[in-house]
Amino acid sequence: MSKPQPLNHTREQITALDNDLLALLAKRRELSLDVARSKEVDVRPIRDTKREKELLARLVKQGREKGLDAHYVISLYQSIIEDSVLNQQAFLHGRANPDTQKPQYTAAYLGAKGSYSYLAATRYCARRQVDMQEFGCQSFDAIIQAVESGQADYGFLPIENTSSGSINEVYDVLQHTSLAIVGETTIEVEHCLLVQSGSNINHIKTVYAHPQPISQCSRYLGLHGQLKLEYCASSAEAMEKVKQSKTADVAAIGSAEGGSLYQLEAIEKGLANQKINQSRFIVVAQKSVDVPEQLPAKSTLIMATGQKPGALVDALSVLKAHNLNMSKLESRPIAGTPWEEMFYLDIEANLSSSSMTAALKELEKITRFIKVLGCYPSESVKPTHLDHQQLMLGSTSEQPERLATTENSQPLRYSKAYKTTHTLIKCGQLEFNAEQPGAIIQIQLPIEPNVFEQQVKTLKESGFQAVLLRGLHLQQDVENALVQFKKSLDHFNLACIIVIEYGSDLTLAAHYGDILFLDGAQMFNQSLLTQLGTLLLPVIVERNHMANTEALLTASNTVLSQGNQQVILCESGINMNTGINMNNSEHISLDLAGLVSLKNATHLPVITNPCYAVEMTQINTYIPAIKNLRADGLVLHLSQSTQAINPDEVSQLNDILRSLYH
Ligand SMILES: C=C(O[C@@H]1C=C(C(=O)O)C=C[C@H]1O)C(=O)O
């Protein structure tokens, strides 16, 4: 074996390469600012996810040829792109607000050098290539005061943290200030245990920290119950105390970066309860700013609606009507007016957009108080991902859009990436659950209420937990009949599911049904899907016989995205008529593969209705497969509705349910 070259020599080579890499990264940054200049002229959006996907796919392919792992390449470039996007945003924002362009900003932040607020301020100024004049403050009020009096240009206030949530005191100071929010910045907060060099965890008796890190690290501190906690006004003060301490039995909670400013050593890292621990800061200044339309913008409002019932809902409906997305809603008490709340809203829109202007006008009419705190560039850059095929082939051309994500690569609501646990839906004794699948029987209307009652009694004895009523439009005196049907169903403790075949069925169905069932023929009806999404009742969406499973999932997403989280999917088979045999008659086939792919794709319950595809006498042979594939429920059809169920049919139904439950 040949002798490797001396370690020093190899390290020198690595150092030289790292220098080259940094120089290249700096060059790339400069070029991305040239891109921003072109986008300023063409008024193009900063973000171009198509370009990012192409770039990632090509780099993954080239990286693979050089032996580099795809995930490694992607995560490196996600950070590079995030930096590039944020730099371009800062550049264009500066261009649109020339009076903010100065060689130096005085930044007011909480605590001293090394506090998280200090790190956020440093990051903000560095991104804008301006020097930072430090203005450490003892409280949030002092920060506001420093900016209001003109001693500081900008104030940095932490507004929320991924572990401990919203920071109430900051919302409270915002109620009374004349300052405007002009920016936001998010920093990664990695809490560490910082000690004087040479000390170790066994020596530590006292921990100094600000209350926020203490709450964000509650789990770690709970496991080390012997540690005495001492609250400090900021993380910087905690670090200073440890630095000044004569004994080595004290520690501070803070960032490794901050600790190094106090010559402290980080002996334990990642103390926060949440793995990803980030704090978002807002930046306040005396004068509000304009956000060019190419930048993703956020507007923050505060409003008081008065104590009328439903007043907040009315206000939020205004946003919905103008298609405005609210990314945050907070409420805080109003000092001096008990039981009244001030609401804080972050809206993902530019204040100068027509939808925002119109919504504000309407809100002014229905609120007691409303004020815009500011409009500023949104700094949340969602990373672009590649789907499996793009990763494998290294190309994005002619690839279908990744199904389970939206344009911004957010997982879709039905997907397991969005929610990892199965959605449990229960209604009386009916439960959608693969261990004990729900048993539902369809009764075709019209039916005489007294025949209905007899049938329901038999069906209850067979073990069904719900009755599905189909054909509302065929029933005479339908409302009266529904009252009686519902009475019988309640008497036997059976859930009432009503099929919606026409838009006009919705009102009655929503009034009398415990669960609504959207007929497959209406699966593409966006208006009905949207209306179902606003209800508080569970909704079953049936797959159209001509539609693929993706289309069914997309339909469910429409319902979910309106707020209704109780959505169930129903696989009722597909039309196998290919058109080749010129035979127009429907041939529906039970799509077991569809059932598998639905169960794999979603956290929502999936039920199956084999009755369009399989003769009643044959259904029993499918039950083991249906159980194995973990269907959460089964729908069967009753053959007729003019008289009591005949004994043969009763015994068939009993057999089916017996094999379902044994
Ligand atoms: C640099 C650009 O702007 C953004 C940043 C990109 C990058 O850093 O590679 C790519 C696409 C855009 O989202 C560009 O449009 O080329």
Automatic annotation (TrEMBL):
Pathway: Amino-acid biosynthesis; L-phenylalanine biosynthesis; phenylpyruvate from prephenate: step 1/1. Transmembrane segments: none annotated. One of its GO terms (molecular function) is prephenate dehydratase activity. The keyword Lyase applies. InterPro entries: ACT-like_dom_sf, ACT_dom, Aldolase_TIM, Chorismate_II_sf, CM_dom_sf, CM_II_prokaryot, CM_P_1, DAHP1/KDSA. It is an enzyme of class 4 (lyase). The keyword Lyase applies. CDD domains: ACT_CM-PDT, PBP2_Ct-PDT_like. Residues 106-286 form the Prephenate dehydratase domain. Residues 300-377 form the ACT domain. Pfam families: CM_2, DAHP_synth_1, PDT. Its EC number is 4.2.1.51. It catalyses: prephenate + H(+) = 3-phenylpyruvate + CO2 + H2O. It comes from the Bacteria. Keywords: Amino-acid biosynthesis, Aromatic amino acid biosynthesis, Lyase, Phenylalanine biosynthesis, Transferase. Residues 1-92 form the Chorismate mutase domain. NCBIfam families: CM_P_1, PRK11898.1. This is Prephenate dehydratase. It comes from Shewanella surugensis.
